[in-house]
Amino acid sequence: MKFLSVDTSCDETSASVCKDDRVLSNIISSQVDLHNEWGGVVPSIAKRIHQERIDPTISLALKRARLKIEDIDAFAITIGPGLAIALEVGIKKIKELSQIHNKPIIVVNHMEGHIYSNFAKNSEGSSYNKFKKPKFPVLCLLVSGNHTELVLMSNHGNYKLLGETLDDAAGEAFDKIARPLILGYPGGSIIERFAESGNPEAFDLPRPMIHSKDYNFSFSGLKTASVLLIEKLKQKYKKDFSKVVPDFCSSFQQSITDVLLAKTVKAVKEYKVKQLFMGGGVISNNQIRKSFRKEMRRLSVNVFISDKKFCTDNAAMIGICAYYKSKRNEYVKNIKNVDRMPNLKINENILF
Ligand code: KG4
Ligand code: ZN
């Protein structure tokens, strides 16, 4: 089964060709440089750039896969969650292609895509993260720029949202903290680089909701405390402020890691899961990857962490998810009805 998939949910224009769960090509055209000067994603700019780049991105995905559009069996498209006017661009294009080539569509939830990034294989069929078979129920930790979710997956396509962020997502906190530090957008990977030479115990930042009884998260308090601390440090160190940036970044990263880990361990124990899947942009973070591997080994839980190239937004994860949906025959029935769903939840399975 050959899928051409597209994701335009945020600030990456991505198209991929997958043969079942094998990734033949995965093109990601990032807009981060264009949003950088605004310190975050500007929806109208994202829409315009998606419109400019969608055709060349699809053409390149086909070319890299050494296939023509006529060789494709079905199309896959992200319908949400994401920026409405950005999602719209990919949806419109896939509807057009489906009608021209008379091939079916499968619609995919972006967060479900982040889960299935763990199932990615290369063109020879070897798994990127040594993943073989799920042992349900599986726990999924999804951490991106807009979402922080703990999801219990009891089968393919069957999800229960255990908890999510009540305010800022973890990635958003990284991005917002990068602004007063004048590090640019997106903040996560830059903060990680500075954190490498810092001391994680240098500053005692809050670990919001770490002991709450539920599985929800909250990162806005951490963000506010961090901004206040940055101001104090700027006043104290003046020209030498840059010398404390690594310690600050390391302490901030440690606080996020501790909260994510504590909540995940609690869920692992309560739901007695044997496998954990991790995905989303923030999961590219080495400190988070290392801490989870260590703790899950101690708990005898098999942890599967998306290969870094499938952590941040990409269309390959959408194609792989669509392949599993095709096995359940979850094709769109009426293409005209396919529409963006900016607030789509992980447990809503919309087929149109
Ligand atoms: O999944 P993603 O590409 O987009 C959304 O669906 O939102 O995630 C983007 C987020 C951004 O907030 C970015 O700062 C964060 O992932 N991120 C990281 C790292 N790389 C990207 N956060 C921490 N450490 C990283 N290495
Ligand atoms: Zn994402």
Topology:
Layout: E1 2-7, E2 12-19, E3 22-30, H1 32-36, H2 43-64, E4 74-80, H3 84-101, E5 105-109, H4 110-116, E6 138-143, E7 148-155, E8 158-164, H5 170-178, H6 187-195, H7 220-237, H8 245-271, E9 275-279, H9 286-298, E10 302-305, H10 316-327
Parallel strand pairs: 1-4, 4-5, 6-9, 9-10
Antiparallel strand pairs: 1-2, 2-3, 6-7, 7-8
This protein binds 5'-O-[(R)-(carboxyoxy)(hydroxy)phosphoryl]adenosine and zinc ion.
Give me a quick take on this structure:
This protein has 352 residues and is of the alpha/beta class.
The molecules bound to the chains, other than polymers, are: 5'-O-[(R)-(carboxyoxy)(hydroxy)phosphoryl]adenosine, zinc ion
Helix content: 25-40%
Annotated CATH topology of the largest domain: Nucleotidyltransferase, domain 5
- Beta percentage is 15-25%
What does this structure look like?
- With 352 residues, the chain is α/β, with parallel strands linked by helices.
- It folds into two domains: 2-128 and 310-337, Nucleotidyltransferase, domain 5, CATH 3.30.420.40; 138-305, Nucleotidyltransferase, domain 5 (2-Layer Sandwich).
- It is built from ten helices and ten strands.
- The chain has helices spanning 32-36, 43-64, 84-101, 110-116, 170-178, 187-195, 220-237, 245-271, 286-298, 316-327; strands at 2-7, 12-19, 22-30, 74-80, 105-109, 138-143, 148-155, 158-164, 275-279, 302-305.
- The protein has a five-stranded mixed sheet with strand order 3-2-1-4-5, with helices on both faces.
- The two termini are 21 Å apart.
- The model has no long low-confidence stretch (mean pLDDT 97).
- Residues 110, 114, 144, 280, 313 line the site of zinc ion (ZN).
